[in-house]
Amino acid sequence: MKKIYILFTLIILCLGVNFNMFSAPDGDPVVLAKWDFGDDGKKELITGHSSFVSNPYTADEGLVANKDIAEISLYGGAEFDAWVAGATASPDQAPNTVKWDNSGSYWQISISTKNYTEISISSKQRGSNTGPKEFKIEYSIDNGSNWQAVGTTINVANNFTTGCVNDLALPSECDNLDNLLIRWLNVSNISVNGSTVASTGTSRIDDIIVKGVEIIIPEIIFSELEEEYFTNTDIEATATVVSNGYIDALCGINYQVYKDGEALEGDISEYGSLTYSFRDAGSDMYVGNLTEASGNLSIEVGEENVGAFSLGIFDTYCVNRNRNISFTANFTQPGLYKVEANLNSCSNTGEALDIGGFTANEICGGAYHNDLVAETCENPEVIESFEFEVNIVEEFIVGTPEIIFSELEEEYFTNTDIEATATVVSNGYIDALCGINYQVYKDGEALEGDISEYGSLKYSFRDAGSDMYVGNLTEASGNLSIEVGEENVGAFSLGIFDTYCVNRNRNISFTANFTQPGLYKVEANLNSCSNTGDILEIGGFTANEICGGAYHNDLVAETCENPEVIESFEFEVNIVEDYYS
């Protein structure tokens, strides 16, 4: 049993989304598409052959993919003439057609049989005495490039009882198709009365019914993934298997991984890592790695390779095997990654695992089922093809923001302007609100209150446009705030002043002038805030590629709530008496 579950996990890693797997018939036939021509609204749009072509009559009943979508058409020269009495007489109607005098004309319908098997067709035809007599039903699975006949020749009479087809079975290659074409081909120029078909001879068709048996489609319920991830970021997901009763047949998988449209080859570890885990026998967890870019999925069980398995091993529908699969992907290189995979049915039946098996619940019949495996998937036939894409972009690492001050002299005279500039480097920390609190010291003592008796401190930066905002720092300690309009702002997003994710051209200039000598020191804290702030209507920017390239709003708030220190900084300057004074 050990390692056998890797195989199924790899399916999930290849597909990465919710998907339908393989099929088995279930229940009674249902109508996939039906034309009884009873919709007066549709018929009113068709008054002649040109409108029959431009507004084709669509199926009256059937699947969502067919009802009011699947069309009936005429080819080969035959033309719609009028609406006349149908198979059950008035008020039932059917399309009446002419110009069948050259054999090779045909009725055609186009339908979906997706998720259905055991397809069958029924129809009723009638011809006038000089209308066409001999028809064959044919189907095409390649949009009309090739046609295959099915059943015997239909001999039509001047009634709706002779030329009837009842539940004619179509081959299995007609199952589970997005587009199946079926036609009623006129195969001779013999008329209903045994003479030659006349151009005025008519042909009608009515009560076309296509049936099928719904396929049991197992499901893989996969936790949602984002459309985009950063490099060097763990991408985690979980998959749950719901067999819906399909628990015994073997299947196999082949796959190919692409990056930026190119098929990768060989070892893919240079692009990152993909690890997966699930419960093995007992409570042990198995952890494995996917390393190859393409191939047929197989694993080692003892000394043998296993390339096929039964779905019941992972089921939660017929029994809860408690075997969800978890995986973690981490890509080191940016790019658009795509996986294409084929789920294949196998003709072999496999061997029972000695330590595997389960008793199904009542929904699935209550019988005991073995867990089955095989070395290879013999005569694989594609049941379904899948693909998924995930975009990996360059990792955006949010670092600790910095405020870089221009260098100061160690000593200045009193009554001298001291100029300095502060540059904000967010290092990606551009959206969260920040606040600043500070304390000014002189000669080792914390100052209090108004500091104007010691001199002045002004600061300025570019406001909106080219205007400059100028403010004064008058208190010896507190929380920095500025006026925005008529409001005081005590918290802001660093993106407003950034030079890292975008150059906002908003350095902060300081001018200090001290009137008393002494050793002055400023201690300050840059704090994160728990509140989110309001968006400035006139602010915002698009970050560069280093920071992910997205648009970011400028955010402000009146206060910084629950501040926590991100970074502390201080600077000192010695002020001496101006000896010229």
Report on the structure:
This protein is mainly beta. It has three domains: 185 residues, Galactose-binding domain-like (Jelly Rolls); 151 residues, no CATH class; 175 residues, Immunoglobulin-like. It has three helices and 49 strands. The strands form ten sheets. Strands 15, 17, 18, 21, 24, 26, 27, 30 and 31 form a nine-stranded mixed beta sheet that branches. Strands 33, 35, 36, 39, 42, 44, 45, 48 and 49 form a nine-stranded mixed beta sheet that branches. Strand 46 and strand 47 form a beta hairpin.
In short:
The chain has 581 residues and is mainly β. Helix content is 4%, strand content 46%.
Q: Spans of 5+ residues with little confidence (pLDDT < 50)?
A: 1-24
Question: What is the CATH C-level name of the largest domain?
Answer: Mainly Beta
End-to-end C-alpha gap? 94 Å
What oligomeric state is this? single chain
What does the overall shape look like?
Answer: elongated
- Please name the CATH topology of the largest domain: Jelly Rolls
Provide the number of structural domains: 3
Instruction: Give the biggest sheet.
Output: 9 strands, mixed
Helix content: under 10%
Can you count the helices? 3
**Overall pLDDT confidence:** 87
Known CATH architecture of the largest domain: Sandwich
Fraction in beta strands: over 45%
Instruction: Supply the CATH superfamily name of the largest domain.
Output: Galactose-binding domain-like
Structural class: mainly beta
Number of strands: 49
Radius of gyration: 39 Å
